[in-house]
Automatic annotation (TrEMBL):
InterPro entries: Cyt_P450, Cyt_P450_CS, Cyt_P450_E_grp-I, Cyt_P450_sf, Cytochrome_P450_fung. This is Cytochrome P450. It comes from Mycena rosella (Pink bonnet). Heme binds at residue 434. Residues 1-23 form the signal peptide. PROSITE patterns: CYTOCHROME_P450.
Length: 533
């Protein structure tokens, strides 16, 4: 009998503790009602989480909390809160949440905890090589690849969606590994987009079980856990690509065939940077991912918006014709004379951000903000979508309207303080801002001008001649998102511009040749045929 009393008290204690699990602790910011044990897990969205997060922000404010079982998540849908917590206090908010499924795939700098020595090494290395000056050295191949993009669209406009993907992937392969992709079907390009699609599905908030909150899930056999099979599949796809490219680069260095790529520099300075083969391979991986999918998604969104909002396209055409004219292609120097196209670039980021929830952060220490407590280890979601679509900040935020950036510096309503919104907000916050921002911005600027200068983008028609309606919300699932494939009618604006594109493409052959190592027989044949006419 004596043993029953402590046992009963113990069970009572466990019962009381379990009832508190999932409950919003005193001091946390408000949020949706919780239930015992789960907190808000039962209502956490499993896809396109930014829509639900934004809906909750309109109800609970731009700084609210979610309970993820015993864990806490903070959602920021307020630009001032983002500036204060993610930029000014980045020393405390630089971490990443524990993600068992991520470590099961790959040690990726983008998602590593700040406390990891590997993260500090990779961050230091990335910022050492991705400077504005270093990025400027790679403009020739970016401009040449942008010319091929125009040429590909000119010849096969119906395949514009994959032409854009080829462009972005070929640029980053050339810049990182000194090896380009002449076709979308180039083995490295198809391997990348296959691996990236799997990776983004795994990363999407709500797409995998809360393993870090319920550790016993780690021991579920793979045959009963689809998420584990997805992790295994993605890890193999990524490693085969990243380390295959790294080994090719090392072999080219040994043959004395360097062409100035970033990975050549890293391989020759490995000892200085303190990097082994494993970390070097993964650095290449994160830079490929940061430079391929995001740029292509951005350009696809730009085209989608120009078709859906023809008046904006018309104004861009008028401006570029006035500045550049008929007889040459635009250059980066022209952009400073094109306020409307600069505004269009910013508006595309706002209208359809590539990373609507960015990548989650986590706190290294407790923080206090506006009288509320953010506990140590809390996950922080930066809801870029909700900020960019806030009707308190923007007039008619659901519409694509570049002119808003001509009225005010940050596109906000006249009279509304938009100083908390940085021009490069779409590239991340705090110490986790995209290290390849300069390279990416050059690609965006070059291609936006080129596409506006060269083509008319209009709604396509079906077999009966009726316009095919565009859905500007038809986007891919994933932590990074872009439009689903869509149809468009694309025509050269003048015959002279078509001739200039042909000529510039042929003249780019010398630049391309410096990066055409190890091409497959099919790629070699494509290169010969594309330059024969």
């Amino acid at each position: 009998m004596a043993i029953l009393i402590p046992l009963a008290l113990g069970l009572l204690g466990v019962f009381i503790w379990l009832r508190k699990v999932g409950t919003r602790e005193p001091g946390l910011p408000p949020g949706p009602p919780t239930v015992p044990l789960l907190g808000n897990l039962h209502i956490f969205p499993t896809e396109f989480a930014h829509y639900k997060f934004t809906e909750w922000a309109r109800q609970y404010g731009g700084f609210y909390s979610l309970k993820m079982g015993p864990g806490t998540a903070i959602v920021l849908t307020d630009a001032a809160a983002v500036k204060e917590l993610m930029d000014r206090r980045s020393g405390s908010t630089v971490d990443r949440p524990a993600m068992h499924f991520v470590l099961a795939i790959i040690l990726l700098v983008l998602l590593m905890p700040m406390t990891a020595e590997n993260w500090r090494t990779l961050r230091r290395t990335a910022h050492a090589i991705l400077t504005p000056q270093a990025s400027a050295r790679h403009l020739p191949i970016q401009q040449a690849e942008a010319t091929q993009l125009l040429h590909d669209i000119l010849l096969r406009p119906q395949s514009f969606y994959t032409h854009i993907r080829r462009y972005s992937n070929s640029v980053i392969l050339s810049v990182l590994y000194g090896k380009r992709a002449p076709r979308y079907e180039t083995p490295e390009t198809t391997a990348f987009f296959k691996a990236q699609h799997e990776w983004e599905l795994v990363l999407e908030p709500g797409a995998t079980p809360p393993v870090d909150l319920i550790p016993i899930l780690k021991y579920v056999p793979e045959r009963w856990a689809k998420w584990k099979r997805d992790c295994t599949k993605t890890r193999k796809l990524q490693r085969d690509l990243y380390f295959g490219l790294l080994d090719e680069t090392k072999e080219r260095i040994l043959r004395g065939e360097e062409n100035g790529s970033y990975m050549e520099e890293i391989l020759t300075r490995q000892q200085e940077f303190g990097m082994d083969r494993e970390i070097t391979g993964y650095l290449g991986g994160v830079l490929i991912e940061g430079g391929s999918d995001t740029t292509s998604s951005y350009l696809q969104s730009l085209i989608l918006a120009m078709i859906a909002y023809p008046d904006s396209q018309k104004k861009a055409h008028e401006e570029i014709d006035r500045v550049v004219g008929e007889h040459r292609m635009p250059t980066l120097d022209d952009l400073e004379h094109m306020p409307y196209i600069r505004a269009m670039i910013l508006e595309t980021h706002r209208f359809r951000p590539v990373a609507p929830l960015m990548v989650p952060h986590a706190t290294l220490a407790p923080e206090e903000y506006k009288g509320y407590v953010i506990p140590e280890g809390a996950t922080i979601f930066v809801n870029a979508w909700g900020i960019f679509h806030d009707p308190a900040l923007y007039d008619d935020p659901e519409s694509f309207s570049p002119g808003r950036y001509l009225l005010t510096e940050n596109g906000t309503k006249p009279g509304v303080d938009g100083s908390d919104l940085r021009p490069n907000f779409a590239f991340g916050v705090g110490r986790r801002i995209c290290p390849g921002i300069h390279l990416a911005q050059n690609s965006i600027n070059i291609n936006t001008m080129n596409l506006v200068w060269a083509f008319n983008f209009t709604t396509d028609t079906d077999a009966g001649g009726s316009p095919i309606e565009l859905d500007t919300f038809a986007y891919q699932k994933g932590i990074l998102t872009g439009p689903k494939p869509f149809r468009a009618k694309i025509t050269p604006r003048t015959a002279e511009k078509a001739e200039i594109i042909e000529r510039e493409f042929l003249e780019a052959a010398d630049t391309f040749s410096k990066f055409e190592f190890g091409l497959s027989p099919e790629d070699k044949e494509f290169v010969v045929q594309s330059r024969a006419h």
